[in-house]
Amino acid sequence: MGDWIQVQGPDGAFRAYVARPAGQPRAAVVAIQEIFGVNAVMRKKADWLARAGFLAIAPDLFWRLGKDIDITDQSEAEWAQAFDYFKRFDVDAGVRDVQATIAHARGIGCTKVGAVGYCLGGLLAYLTATRTDADASVGYYGVNIPAFVGEAANIKAPLMLHIAGKDGFVDKAAQDAMAAGLGGNAKVTLHTYAEQDHAFTREGGKHFDAAAAKIADDRTIAFFQGRLA
Description:
Layout: E1 2-9, E2 12-19, E3 28-32, H1 40-51, E4 55-59, H2 76-88, H3 91-107, E5 113-118, H4 120-131, E6 136-140, E7 159-164, H5 172-182, E8 188-193, H6 210-227
Parallel strand pairs: 3-4, 3-5, 5-6, 6-7, 7-8
Antiparallel strand pairs: 1-2, 2-4
Helix pairs in contact: 3-4
């Protein structure tokens, strides 16, 4: 369904996976990666968005760390690699790359552009809402959001966050901080999945839960359909 393109960012060009819908796209959605690069799981997320009628673009945000990074969550060695990338990743530069991808989508005729991210991408989706001109953003089990909750006043377009109640990387204190900092914001919708762990929508992952993933994904598509029309 998809192919690769080049996106011009402020620091240089980087590749992005693009999945195109069968007909005229209703809008574009930037799909923001986890810590494994734009791997098969991430490309399938883009394909899913395309089947829902959106032009989906998944930028390679690790391009500064290595060429064409594409690993899985299926071995300890790959997890070690992924956490090394995560520790070295420049969040601010990543958000600039997301903005460049949004601008690319607008430049090819998509007047409405949203963003959806997972794990690290969940944090970046939140920051997309606070720092970019995206028309709507969705974050799944975003990590480290409380460190940036002070930016919530900058949210101008709707934001939805999917929170895993038993997230091993986002403890209850962090979840409470998100609720306190974001719960009263009229632009923000929070959904908590009380029995789910981190990455519950990652197919093939240890914590994948098909039923919970369907609920979250249906909410995401309805959210985008209502706000990117």
